Q: What sequence folds into this?
């Protein structure tokens, strides 16, 4: 294996430690305890795991965690009511409504109802727009984590050919905006892209956010390129269980790439650490304090 493995878990632990230290200072110096409210509607098993780990991490970071569990039959109006209450609650600095939502609820209506200053997921159109025009914004956590991981290999991304495979609102598009902000030359590919292997082979830094197991193969990768794998895919195994793999065929890609993130242990842990960072930022902004440089 040739590639350097980018240890997302260790990097996330380091970031988490800095956020926790800054939260402790905020509390000691200003009596301000950052608070994150996580809302879970229904009992999607994957969502249950995600919200539990977010809540545990919030508490471990010395922040206030509030879990709101609503039944699967919750109406859109009921969820909007809760969001309004959380918008008005001065102890809540970040609001995260776990997606996906049950079919009777329009996720865009919920996202639009969240106070943009508390939108720690960075999904509100105001935050997406601010990011697009280069204004300070709350930025989605996964793309933030991806940039941090890439910068451990390339302290500056300026001038590099960056490819983002995937154009979702939560990963691909904001990641492309962040890369533009870093002065990379950005290509965004998607399901209609022609000859994706050839497009991929031009990339100095390749971000895969596709949602299809092991799509990016060895011969898609420029030798020495950096590969950041966002994908989380459950693949059934012979014993009736499953294993989690990324969007990149890790073992073969690692023979060609210069650096690569593993799945699990790459982008995932960084996403949660960036959520803590966003909550800290939102708390600082809520009282016009400067944000710690982290
Ligand atoms: P998504 O909304 O389903 O978007 C997938 C994107 O990939 C779409 O833009 C789609 O193109 C494109 N795509 C699908 N098949 C393709 C193909 N064969 N060739 C090229 N492009 C293709 O997914 P997402 O929410 O962005 O998530 C992507 C992956 O990241 C998933 O595995 C998800 O679980 C994972 N994820 C991980 C984290 C984390 O914390 N690690 C966070 C969020 C998401 P079209 O637009 O043309 O349909």
A:
């Amino acid at each position: 294996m040739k590639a350097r493995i980018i240890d997302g878990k260790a990097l996330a632990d380091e970031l988490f430690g800095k956020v926790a230290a800054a939260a402790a200072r905020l509390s000691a110096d200003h009596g301000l305890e950052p608070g994150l409210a996580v809302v879970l509607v229904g009992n999607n098993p994957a969502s249950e795991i995600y919200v539990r780990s977010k809540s545990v991490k919030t508490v471990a970071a010395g922040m206030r965690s509030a879990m709101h569990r609503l039944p699967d039959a919750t109406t859109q109006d009921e969820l909007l009511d809760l969001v309004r209450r959380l918008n008005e609650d001065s102890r809540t600095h970040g609001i995260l409504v776990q997606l996906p939502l049950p079919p009777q609820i329009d996720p865009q209506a919920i996202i639009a109802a969240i106070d943009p200053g508390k939108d720690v997921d960075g999904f509100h159109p105001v935050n997406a727009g601010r990011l697009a025009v280069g204004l300070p914004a709350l930025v989605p956590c996964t793309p933030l984590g991806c940039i941090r991981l890439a910068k451990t290999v390339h302290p500056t991304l300026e001038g590099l050919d960056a490819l983002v495979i995937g154009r979702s609102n939560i990963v691909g598009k904001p990641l492309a905006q962040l890369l533009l902000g870093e002065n990379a030359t950005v290509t965004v590919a998607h399901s209609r892209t022609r000859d994706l292997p050839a497009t991929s082979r031009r990339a100095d830094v390749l971000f895969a956010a596709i949602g299809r197991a092991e799509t990016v193969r060895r011969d898609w990768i420029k030798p020495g390129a950096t590969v950041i794998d966002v994908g989380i895919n459950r693949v059934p195994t012979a014993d009736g269980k499953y294993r989690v793999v990324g969007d990149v065929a890790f073992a073969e890609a690692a023979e060609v790439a210069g650096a690569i993130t593993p799945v699990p242990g790459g982008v995932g842990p960084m996403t949660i650490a960036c959520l803590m960072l966003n909550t800290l930022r939102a708390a600082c902004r809520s009282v016009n304090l400067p944000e710690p440089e982290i």
